[in-house]
Amino acid sequence: MNIRSCVLLTVLLLAFLPAEAQCAMCRAVLESGGGQEAAKGINNGIVYLMAIPYLLMAGLAYVVYRKFRNKKAV
Hints:
This protein is mainly alpha-helical.
């Protein structure tokens, strides 16, 4: 098993860990209110908003990769 596959395996295993994206102040305010459903909803919204820019950049990188790959083949 080479280093590349070890790194890939580690990244894939860490991707399944639950993420907590709330800042300390948001979490304190939401948890003090007693409504745990509101806290979970806010946390899910923050994770969603955090993921969109990464997905857009990955899509852009894929398009650029395909363009350069097609130019080399021609």
